[in-house]
Amino acid sequence: MRGENRGEQPAAGEAPAWARELLEHLRPSGRDVRRIAEWLAATVHAEVALQDAEGKLLAGRRLPLDGDLVADLTTGRIASAAWEGEGRHLRLVRVEHPSRALVLAVSRRTPFDRRAADVVTHTAQVLELLLTARETATAGQLLRRATADLRLAILQLLMVEDTVSARRVAAGLWPGLLDADTACVYVVESTPARRDRLAEEALDATDGDALVVRCPAMDGHVIVLSPRETIASDLRSLVVRHDDTYLGGSARQSLARTATAYGQAVSALAVARFRPDKAAVYAERIHPERLMDPAALRAWTARLLRPLDALPHHTRAELLATTRLGLEFTAVSTAKILGVSRNTVRARMERVETMLGADFDDVAARAVAHLALHTQINLQDGQAVADPAADPPGLADLLSGEAVRAWAQQLLGPLEDDSRDLRRTLGAWVASGGNAERAAQSLGVHAQTVREHVRSAEPILERQLLAAGTDLYEVVLAMLAAGDLPQPVFAGPAQTSSPA
């Protein structure tokens, strides 16, 4: 610690050395009340204590103080006090604090000269500034954290299709944000280290017209949901300004389909990583369900999911929403998105699996369940179901239509142009539950060969296969339609026959 030359006076207009040293403690790297107490003790050759009205010591070393005198200072009756006795000289100064008053006590063996008194007074002022700034920063952090938690809670409610509760929560802080019936979901990707800053910039860019959430499942992702059309351009401008930042967007969906929109945004993000502008919006491909007879598809869906109809509405909705996400993502990611434990996710999915009489280790069964669960959203949107008394079609009927079979051949056909017989490898891999080792045994090849073939099929099919989700399930449905795979079994109590 630098000491001031006792024999020198500062030049006119120049602050004393001790004042310059004290101000150094206001720099971001020096804001520590304990260090200030230590500096004060060394500067005025004294013992120092900073405490509250109850005697809790915040800095320095404990001093014997008169309780009544401390009470007078902390209650505001007096601002400072001096005491002399028993060979000690004591100065006490009230230090203002946003939540409670403190007392700075300085005890030394020699009387307080003008310099020492000035040092104590100014130190008390610096402590007030530092403590106020710290309290304000802490309050701001708590507010930001609480607001971020609310935004995440709203997103989680939308993910399980509880739009009524989501709107109720949002209305208090962001009036009108969820008034629209439809919205788009975007995922902005950066490094985990930049994610918090990116989220703040997204909040500024969207100007309160979007739900901005730090993704609970992926450390580098920020999720943005908004009904406003111009949000995409706002986020694109954000991506352009930063390296290693990418944007994926969904097609416009109803709020009840937020989970679907999120899956689309993640899928688009994979495309954005290879684009010069680092942004992509989910391409509306020809999906197989759009080639099926709508009434027949809805009737089949209602029949397949009928075992769940006896459940209370809330329980049924919870199970369906969790399973829908669980088929798209891992149990760990689904748990983080929904704000529950992964054991809860697994338990809910196992309950659905049992009620449907299906085996979700079978990729084909997962693909069929995925088709039914996403069709089921249409039923919530008010589309009518066929007469329950009528005999609903089976999966084979839905997949045997001319349009579906043509789509399947168009999708899978390019695999046959590869001399490695990728279509055969892919069929064995799917039949083995996506397990390369088991597929390799059935084909008589090395497991690494199976992995390479599956990876090689991805650019040909223009779909992600190694990550479970919509892309993989569409390929599986095409293979079912083409006869490359046997139909999965759904043996729930409401099913009239084993195949789905």
Secondary-structure topology with pairs:
Elements: H1 17-24, H2 33-44, E1 47-52, E2 57-60, H3 67-74, E3 80-85, E4 88-95, E5 102-108, H4 114-159, H5 163-173, E6 182-189, H6 195-206, E7 211-214, E8 221-226, H7 231-240, E9 246-249, E10 253-254, H8 258-272, E11 279-281, H9 294-304, H10 313-328, H11 331-338, H12 342-356, H13 363-380, H14 395-399, H15 402-412, H16 422-431, H17 436-443, H18 447-461, H19 470-482
Parallel strand pairs: 9-11
Antiparallel strand pairs: 1-2, 1-5, 3-4, 4-5, 6-8, 6-9, 6-10, 7-8
Helix pairs in contact: 1-4, 2-4, 4-5, 6-7, 9-13, 10-11, 10-12, 10-13, 11-12, 13-19, 15-19, 16-17, 16-18, 17-18
Word description of this protein:
By secondary structure, this protein is an alpha+beta fold. The protein has helices at residues 17-24, 33-44, 67-74, 114-159, 163-173, 195-206, 231-240, 258-272, 294-304, 313-328, 331-338, 342-356, 363-380, 395-399, 402-412, 422-431, 436-443, 447-461, 470-482; strands at 47-52, 57-60, 80-85, 88-95, 102-108, 182-189, 211-214, 221-226, 246-249, 253-254, 279-281. The strands form 2 sheets. Strands 6, 7, 8, 9, 10 and 11 form a 6-stranded mixed β-sheet that branches. It has a 5-stranded antiparallel β-sheet with strand order 2-1-5-4-3, sandwiched between helices. Strand 3 and strand 4 form a beta hairpin. Helix 4 (114-159) packs antiparallel against helix 5 (163-173) and helix 11 (331-338) crosses helix 12 (342-356). The protein is elongated and about 105 Å long.
